[in-house]
């Protein structure tokens, strides 16, 4: 099932549980604005190349639209649309005053030089600068983009609108980025996992984890989990997959990845088939790469008891049903990975206030938001007698529906 069909199906199920009428459902589902732009830019050898860029602004009932920009070869309109919709429900679940958006460019950032990436980012910004802004739509990093990408967007945007650090989050600290934003999604995953395990009388220490994806989110999650005594027994990225049943030494793996640009060849673990990583024997599985990776083909073989969705939309609805029958507990993306956008919100607040928080304050506030988030989700599970995914969807959709009705959508 494609990402948009899957996300919209979850939305409709939540709307039915909430008893939303069909007109309001339609109004909430259809994006506010979908932008598609041509980005033609010279390569380093002077030849011209054209990429297609997207920004989908899904909803702004609760505040400025917010969401990352992804550079990946598989970026396509339906997926960006689904990811923008997920951002609307995610910011509502986190209870931060934002709507949802997402963007992307269909390119392989690994094939581009730094100067080619800079030119592409500047051309994309030139095409969308009049549609983003501090109080309209605030981009951030996602797969294939990082703090440097945000610095280029900030600089290009500022040429048109004056210096505006709050127009993007996830910036370098020297340009007004927040302490703790780089680690925030992984740290949020840690806090969410702790809060969930607490419900089962368990803690991180001694649990066996498998992490798919070792970029920003996966590597921070693995590092913070291992610091809490969790045993990360298998990890994968685009270069391959590795396993050590005794637990991988994450600080050493991080050094290896810095030097070798991937987990492949790490001497402290055995190489395994990347296709087997999701079905490895473990207690907790953390998908932290692409969407749709847990589907009807592999769900029945998953051995983890808990799945913490660090990635966006890693689990297909068909897999959800199979896993529910097996008793696997899934902590859904729109709650589990909300630590990133929550600290993005803290960054935006700091930029607007012109006052910088220390890292301890950022992390303490993040823990408060993540702990309260699970409590709110569980309350909806009790009210609607549903699983955690529907608990999160009903929570997010209900908050957006209430804001929409209060603002007077029937004009
Ligand atoms: N960054 C953030 O703050 C947030 C990110 N997310 C979500 O988390 C996920 C990861 O994002 P992020 O860490 O930022 O992205 P990064 O680009 O930093 O990292 C992505 C990781 O996934 C790996 N990867 C790509 N394809 C595969 C594959 N087929 N199998 C295994 N690994 C693969 C990449 O390998 P390689 O580097 O070798 O290509 C890399 O290790 C995405 O779904 C994103 O939407 C959610 C909330 C916030
Ligand atoms: O930090 C942000 O604004 C958005 C992060 C993001 O894209 C996501 O949560 O999926």
Automatic annotation (TrEMBL):
Keyword Transport: no
Signal sequence segment: none
Domain of life of the native organism: Eukaryota
Gene3D superfamilies registered for this protein in UniProt: Leucine Dehydrogenase, chain A, domain 1, NAD(P)-binding Rossmann-like Domain
InterPro entries: Aminoacid_DH-like_N_sf, Glu/Leu/Phe/Val/Trp_DH, Glu/Leu/Phe/Val/Trp_DH_C, Glu/Leu/Phe/Val/Trp_DH_dimer, Glu/Leu/Phe/Val_DH_AS, Glu_DH, NAD(P)-bd_dom_sf, NAD_bind_Glu_DH
Residues annotated to bind NAD(+): 185, 216
Site (Important for catalysis): 142
Active-site residues, Swiss-Prot/TrEMBL: 102
Keyword field: NAD, Nucleotide-binding, Oxidoreductase
UniProt xrefs under SUPFAM superfamilies: Aminoacid dehydrogenase-like, N-terminal domain, NAD(P)-binding Rossmann-fold domains
A GO MF term: glutamate dehydrogenase [NAD(P)+] activity
Binding annotation for substrate: 66, 90, 344
Span of domain Glutamate/phenylalanine/leucine/valine/L-tryptophan dehydrogenase C-terminal: 178-408
Reactions listed under catalytic activity: L-glutamate + NADP(+) + H2O = 2-oxoglutarate + NH4(+) + NADPH + H(+); L-glutamate + NAD(+) + H2O = 2-oxoglutarate + NH4(+) + NADH + H(+)
Homology family: Belongs to the Glu/Leu/Phe/Val dehydrogenases family.
Protein name: Glutamate dehydrogenase
Source organism of this protein record: Cinchona calisaya
């Amino acid at each position: 099932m494609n990402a948009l069909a899957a996300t919209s199906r979850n939305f409709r199920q939540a709307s039915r549980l909430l008893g939303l009428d069909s007109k309001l459902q339609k109004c909430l589902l259809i994006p506010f604005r979908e932008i598609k732009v041509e980005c033609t830019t010279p390569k380093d050898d002077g030849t011209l190349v054209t990429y297609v860029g997207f920004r989908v602004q899904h909803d702004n009932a609760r505040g400025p639209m917010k969401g990352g920009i992804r550079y990946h070869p598989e970026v396509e309109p339906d997926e960006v649309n689904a990811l923008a919709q997920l951002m609307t429900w995610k910011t509502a679940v986190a209870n931060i005053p934002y709507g949802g958006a997402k963007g992307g460019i269909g390119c392989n950032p690994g094939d581009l030089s730094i100067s080619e990436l800079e030119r592409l980012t500047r051309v994309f910004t030139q095409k969308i600068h009049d549609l983003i802004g501090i109080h309209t739509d605030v981009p951030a990093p996602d797969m294939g983009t990082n703090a440097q990408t945000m610095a280029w967007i900030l600089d290009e945007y500022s040429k048109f609108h004056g210096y505006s650090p709050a127009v993007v989050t996830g910036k370098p600290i020297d340009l007004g980025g927040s302490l703790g934003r780089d680690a925030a999604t992984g740290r949020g995953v840690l806090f969410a996992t702790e809060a969930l395990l607490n419900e089962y009388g368990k803690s991180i220490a001694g649990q066996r984890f498998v992490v798919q994806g070792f970029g920003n989110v996966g590597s921070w999650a693995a590092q913070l989990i291992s610091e809490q005594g969790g045993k990360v027994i298998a990890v994968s990225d685009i270069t391959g997959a590795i396993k050590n049943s005794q637990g991988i030494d994450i600080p050493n793996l991080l050094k290896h990845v810095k030097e070798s640009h991937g987990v492949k060849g790490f001497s402290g673990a055995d190489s395994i088939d990347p296709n087997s990583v999701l079905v490895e024997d473990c207690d907790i599985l953390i998908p932290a790469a692409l969407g749709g990776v847990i589907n009807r083909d592999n769900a029945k073989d998953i051995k983890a008891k808990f799945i913490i969705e660090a990635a966006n939309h890693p689990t297909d609805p068909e897999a959800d049903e199979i896993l529910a029958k097996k008793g696997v507990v899934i902590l859904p993306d729109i709650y589990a990975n909300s630590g990133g956008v929550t600290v993005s919100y803290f960054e935006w607040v700091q930029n607007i206030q012109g006052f910088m928080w220390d890292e301890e304050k950022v992390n303490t506030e993040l823990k408060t938001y993540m702990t309260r988030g699970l409590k709110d989700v569980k309350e909806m599970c009790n009210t609607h007698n549903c699983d955690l995914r529907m608990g999160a969807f009903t929570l997010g959709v209900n908050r957006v529906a209430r804001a929409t009705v209060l603002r007077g959508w029937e004009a």
